[in-house]
Hints:
Layout: H1 2-11, H2 16-24, E1 27-31, E2 36-38, E3 46-52, E4 55-59, E5 66-71, E6 75-77, H3 80-85, E7 92-95, E8 99-105, H4 106-115, H5 119-143, H6 146-156, H7 160-163, H8 166-173, H9 177-187
Antiparallel strand pairs: 1-8, 2-7, 3-6, 3-8, 4-5, 4-7
Amino acid sequence: MNEIRKFIDHISPMNDADWKFFSSKLQEVKLKKNTTILKMGNVENYLSFITKGIVRLYIPRESADLTFGFLFNNEFVTAYDSFITQSPSEYQIETLAETTLWKISYKDLQQVYKTTDNGNTIGRKMAEKMFLIKSKRELALLSKTAEERYFDLFSERPKLLQQIPLKYIASYIGVTPQALSRIRKRIT
């Protein structure tokens, strides 16, 4: 739980009383590799912080899943659109490795926002960060080549290559696994 406190204090320091209230709402969950955290069509009821593991966000398809996000240690994971609207998710979330999460329910997070001094500030800053990540990804898909997206991905997140199956990376940059193989051959 110390990782969460450090992460939050980096955004906007929380006093001890607020931290005690917030941390009392957190629940630790340990998941095995390839565990579905959220199934498409279900409502996202939790915001989770990853202290260990890798998580993938994707749209399941019969031919091939469409992967659009990876999250690692010291990052929050949620189907944020489903979480804030409390409507069914249009995608799934699964673990790609053994994963430990600290999660807080929608209801409890609303209490944190109402009760603590800077809960709203932290929530706003996290929402802004998620928006910037999403915006950057959308712009890259519209304006960059698959090879440029591949380079960007590994300059920003070099551990992806060692830890995530290439079929998911191919889907993430918007190409087939065969096209990714050709890109990797050109690079080496």
